[in-house]
C-alpha cells in the first residue's frame, strides 16, 4: 500500500520518505510519504481555503460525514488494527479496542448538539452565547495511541466547523495516513489534511500565523515549546501532556481484588499510557502481601509480538523510549529491590519484562519522574498525610486512583488529590461525555465532553435590545 500525504483533498507523494519500523521485530516494514516545510505550508493553506464553506455547511452535513468516517473505520477495523500493531506494538485485541473506540468517538461528536445558549431573555435584554468555529486547527499526536488521539481531536474540531491539519508522530504515521486517505474520499477537499515529518516540522505548524488553534498531545517538554509558539499570537491551545499517576491503597483494601487492577493500569500498552499507574503507595501492614501479589501477576503477563495469539503485552514503541526505560531499570536496581522482571528480553524487538520494584524510596527518580514503560515502583507508607503530600508535590497532575474498602474514606482522599481525574476502586473508565485533562505540568484545557468540543469554538456574547423594547 502507498501511504501518501493528504493535502487539499489529494493524495500526494512526500518531498521525503520515512521508514517505519515494527517495534516487535526491529525491521523496516513500510515506507511512507514525509512532508517538507513547503508541504506543511500547502496543507495549512488548503485547510484555510476550505474553512469558510465548511464552517457555513449545515451541521447535519458535517455530522453525516463524521458518521461516514466512523462507518469506514469500523468496516476496515481489522486491517487498521493489524497496521496499528505493526507500527505501534500493542496486542491485537487492544488495537481493535482502540480502532472501535475511535469510531465510537466520531459517532459521539457527530451526534453532539452545539446550540447557542440563551443566558438572559427578559424585558431588559436578550443575551445569547453564540459559538462559531475557530478556523484551521493544528492537530499533533504522539505514538502510544495514534488512532484514538487523532479521533478525539478531529471529531470535535470538524463537528464544530473547523478544518484540520494533522501530524502524527514520526514513528507511527501509517494509521493516520490510512485514515487521512479515507477522509479524502469523504470530506470536501481541504477539510482534512495529513502531513508527516521526521519529528522536525511540528514547530512549522504551531508557528504558522494561519493556525487558529493548536491541539497537542505529547510530552511536557514538547508541550512547553508548543506553548511558547502559541504565545507569539495568543493562539488558543489544548495540551494533553505527561503524568505520574499514583495508585494509593488504603489500609482496608482487599489485596486480591485490587492488585490485578493496579498491575493492569501500570502495564497496559507496556506502560505507555498517559494515564497509566506510574507509582503505587501501599500501607506498611499490607506491603509484603501486596508486593508478592503484584510480582506474581507480573510474571503471568505474556510479552511478545502483538499479532501473536495469547500475547498480553507488546514492545516499547521506539528505540529512544526503549533506551530511556532501560535507564529506569538501572535506577530500579540501584534504588530498590526488583521482585519481577528487571531485564530487557532478548531478541530484535524492544521488549522489556514487566517489572515490579519494592523497597524504593519516594525520592527515587523512578518514583518522581514519568517512566512511560512497564516498571511499577511500590512504595511503603505509614501516614496517609505523607502520601497525599508526596503525590501533590509532583509537577504533574494528570490522574490517579484510590483503592479502599470503605468508599467514603476513598472519596475523602480523592478530593484532596491535585489531578484532572481520580478514580476510586476503578481505573481508566473514560467516557466520551466526561471531560478529561491534566492540571499543572500535565496540560492545559480538556478533551471530550461538552467542554472538549467548546474548546474548538470561539464564544461571542450577543447582547441585544429585546424586540418588545425596540
Ligand atoms: P513528543 O512530545 O515527543 O511528541 C508528540 C508529538 O509532537 C509528535 O507528533 C512529535 O513529532 C511532535 N513534536 C516534536 N517536536 C515538536 C515541536 N517542537 N513542536 C510541535 N510538535 C512537536 O511525545 P511522545 O514521545 O510522542 O509521547 C509520549 C508523551 O506523551 C508522554 O509524556 C505521555 O505522557 C504523553 N501523552 C499524554 C497524553 C495525555 O492525554 N495527556 C496521551 C498520550 C501521551
Could you characterize what this model shows?
With 470 residues, this protein is α/β, with parallel strands linked by helices. It folds into two domains: 5-241 and 438-462, Aldehyde Dehydrogenase, Chain A, domain 1, CATH 3.40.605.10; 245-424, Aldehyde Dehydrogenase, Chain A, domain 2. It has helices at residues 37-56, 59-75, 77-88, 92-110, 146-159, 174-186, 202-207, 220-233, 255-267, 284-300, 319-335, 365-368, 384-392, 407-414, 449-454, and strands at residues 5-7, 10-12, 16-21, 28-34, 117-121, 126-133, 136-140, 163-167, 192-194, 211-217, 237-240, 245-249, 277-283, 337-340, 355-358, 375-381, 396-397, 400-403, 423-424, 439-440, 443-444, 457-464. The strands form six sheets. The chain has a seven-stranded mixed beta sheet with strand order 14-15-16-13-12-18-19, with helices on both faces. The chain has a six-stranded mixed beta sheet with strand order 9-8-7-10-11-21, with helices on both faces. The longest helix has 20 residues, at 37-56. Nicotinamide-adenine-dinucleotide binds next to helix 7 and helix 8.
CATH architecture of the largest domain: 3-Layer(aba) Sandwich
Distinct small molecules: nicotinamide-adenine-dinucleotide
Number of strands: 22
Q: Which term fits the overall shape?
A: globular
- Report the β-strand fraction as a percent range: 15-25%
> Would you state the CATH class of the largest domain?
Alpha Beta
* Helical segment count: 15
Q: In angstroms, what is the radius of gyration?
A: 23 Å
CATH level-four homologous superfamily name of the largest domain: Aldehyde Dehydrogenase, Chain A, domain 1
Overall average residue pLDDT: 97
CATH topology of the largest domain: Aldehyde Dehydrogenase, Chain A, domain 1
- What is the domain total for the residues? 2
Q: Helix amount, in percent?
A: 40-55%
User: Which class do the helix and strand fractions yield?
Assistant: alpha/beta
Main beta sheet: 7 strands, mixed
Q: Kindly report how far apart the N and C termini lie.
A: 64 Å
**pLDDT below 50 for ≥5 consecutive residues: which ranges?**
none
Major beta sheet, strand line-up: 14-15-16-13-12-18-19
Amino acid at each position: 500500500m502507498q501511504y501518501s500525504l493528504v493535502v487539499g483533498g489529494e493524495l500526494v507523494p512526500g518531498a521525503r520518505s520515512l521508514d517505519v519500523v515494527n517495534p516487535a521485530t526491529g525491521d523496516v516494514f513500510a515506507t511512507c510519504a514525509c512532508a517538507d516545510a513547503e508541504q506543511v505550508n500547502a496543507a495549512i493553506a488548503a485547510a484555510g481555503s476550505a474553512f469558510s464553506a465548511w464552517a457555513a455547511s449545515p451541521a447535519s452535513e458535517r455530522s453525516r460525514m463524521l458518521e461516514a468516517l466512523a462507518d469506514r473505520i469500523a468496516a476496515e477495523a481489522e486491517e487498521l488494527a493489524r497496521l496499528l500493531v505493526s507500527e505501534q506494538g500493542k496486542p491485537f485485541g487492544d488495537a481493535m479496542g482502540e480502532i472501535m473506540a475511535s469510531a465510537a468517538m466520531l459517532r459521539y461528536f457527530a451526534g453532539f448538539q452545539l446550540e447557542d445558549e440563551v443566558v438572559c431573555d427578559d424585558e431588559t435584554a436578550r443575551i445569547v452565547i453564540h459559538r462559531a468555529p475557530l478556523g484551521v486547527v493544528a492537530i499533533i499526536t504522539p505514538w502510544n495511541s495514534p488512532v484514538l488521539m487523532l479521533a478525539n481531536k478531529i471529531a470535535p474540531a470538524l463537528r464544530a466547523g473547523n478544518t484540520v491539519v494533522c501530524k502524527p508522530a514520526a514513528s507511527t504515521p501509517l494509521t493516520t495516513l490510512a485514515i487521512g486517505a479515507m477522509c479524502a474520499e469523504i470530506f470536501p477537499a481541504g477539510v482534512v489534511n495529513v502531513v508527516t515529518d521526521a519529528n522536525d516540522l511540528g514547530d512549522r505548524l504551531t508557528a504558522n500565523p494561519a493556525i487558529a488553534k493548536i491541539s497537542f498531545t505529547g510530552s511536557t517538554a514538547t508541550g512547553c515549546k508548543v506553548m511558547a509558539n502559541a504565545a507569539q499570537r495568543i493562539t488558543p491551545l489544548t495540551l494533553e501532556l505527561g503524568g505520574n499517576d499514583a495508585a494509593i491503597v488504603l489500609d482496608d483494601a482487599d489485596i486480591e481484588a485490587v492488585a490485578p487492577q493496579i498491575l493492569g493500569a501500570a502495564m497496559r500498552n507496556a506502560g505507555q499510557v498517559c494515564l497509566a499507574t506510574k507509582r503505587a503507595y501501599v500501607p506498611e501492614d499490607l506491603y509484603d502481601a501486596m508486593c508478592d501479589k503484584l510480582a506474581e501477576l507480573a510474571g503471568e503477563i505474556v510479552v511478545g509480538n502483538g499479532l501473536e495469539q495469547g500475547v498480553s503485552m507488546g514492545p516499547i514503541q521506539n528505540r529512544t523510549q526503549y533506551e530511556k526505560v532501560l535507564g529506569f531499570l538501572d535506577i530500579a536496581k540501584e534504588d530498590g529491590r526488583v521482585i519481577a522482571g528487571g531485564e530487557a528480553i532478548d531478541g530484535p524487538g524492544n521488549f522489556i519484562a514487566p517489572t515490579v520494584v519494592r523497597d524504593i524510596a519516594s525520592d527515587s527518580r523512578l518514583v518522581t519522574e514519568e517512566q512511560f514503560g512497564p516498571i511499577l515502583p511500590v512504595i511503603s507508607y505509614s501516614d496517609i498525610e505523607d502520601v497525599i503530600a508526596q503525590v501533590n508535590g509532583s509537577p504533574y497532575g494528570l490522574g490517579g486512583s484510590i483503592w479502599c474498602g470503605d468508599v467514603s474514606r476513598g472519596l475523602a482522599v480523592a478530593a484532596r488529590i491535585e489531578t484532572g481525574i481520580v478514580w476510586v476502586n476503578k481505573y481508566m473508565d473514560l467516557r466520551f461525555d466526561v471531560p478529561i485533562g491534566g492540571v499543572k505540568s500535565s496540560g492545559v484545557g480538556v478533551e471530550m465532553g461538552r467542554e472538549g468540543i467548546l474548546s474548538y469554538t470561539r464564544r461571542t456574547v450577543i447582547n441585544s435590545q429585546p424586540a418588545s423594547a425596540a
